[in-house]
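Protein modeling request. Please complete all fields; requests missing the sequence field cannot be processed.
Requester role: graduate student
Desired output: 3D structure, token encoding
Chains: 1
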Amino acid sequence: MNITSGTIVRTVILAVALINQILVASGHSVIPIPDEDWETLITTGATVITALLAWWKNNSFTKAARIGDYHMRIAKENPTKQ
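Delivered output (82 residues):
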């Protein structure tokens, strides 16, 4: 069981958004927008959206977590009657 491409993409986007937010907060213009208020608003919005998406999704990096996800999917696909 491998780490899914969705997990990798969400993690990379979150890292880029966080790095960009830190650079903006330290006064470095990463996105060339003349009005600094708009730049801060856009980068903050991107950071918040990315953080919420990364938090909402179950990002399993360890082998044990991926095995657990596999067993959970199997259990959901084949529920037993109690």
